[in-house]
Design a protein that fits this description.
With about 230 residues, the protein is mainly β. It has two domains: about 100 residues, OB fold (Dihydrolipoamide Acetyltransferase, E2P), CATH 2.40.50; about 110 residues, Nucleic acid-binding proteins (OB fold (Dihydrolipoamide Acetyltransferase, E2P)), CATH 2.40.50. About 5% of the residues lie in helices and about 45% in strands. The strands form two sheets. Strands 1, 2, 3, 4, 5, 6 and 7 form a seven-stranded mixed sheet that branches. A five-stranded mixed barrel has the order 8-10-11-13-12. The relative contact order is 0.15. The model has no long low-confidence stretch (mean pLDDT about 95). The structure holds zinc ion. Zinc ion binds next to loops.
Length: about 230
Amino acid sequence: MNKSKLRELKPGREISTTVRILKEPQHSSFKGKEIVKAKIGDDSSIANLVAWDKQTCRWVFRMGDLIEIERGECPRSHKDAYSPPTINISAHTVVRKKEKQGGFPSIQECMSKRFLAEIPDYSYGVVRGFITQVYKTASYYCVDCKKFTDEMCDCGNFPDPLFRITGVFADGTDTVPLTIISEEAAETLTGEKRGDAKKIDPKIVMDRPHTFLGYRRERFYVEEVME
Ligand SMILES: [Zn+2]
């Protein structure tokens, strides 16, 4: 079997690889279907491993486990989207726990910091840097039109503000547009509540360096504030 590194993950292609589970798996549901999801990593990159619906019964893994994936599916729909790096466990994917560690990097080693310039498109990384500009602290998403809009959408709706910070992020090796994609992460970053999204003083996030877990898709999308 031809083994790849996680860094080689490409939308629309299958991947066979060995990875470590970096966080406790999260269970949720979408449109009545169960989903199990966890961050996985090796010494080259980090991605999500996801099992849907019937495949969730095959998920017997926990944080810290080393697992072997054969023919993991990377969704074709992720080619043009702003979707995060993901491997789906499909019906023909083989996935099993590996007992022999063989010197495979630990969770901490997989999560070690990288420079922005070292992170390719469709890859996660842990990066320490500065927010050098803030464009917005609130965004508006129209559920009827299914798109981000101004305070008033073209259709006449006034969507509730989302605590979604956008700006510029730089670490000395690269400078990229930034989006903090979760409201939890925006709250951690600012120490403010989502209801105050419109009133945030941008200076409070620009005065010190931050360590983010995020992925690159033209922008750097931050999922988690580490420090
Ligand atoms: Zn609308």
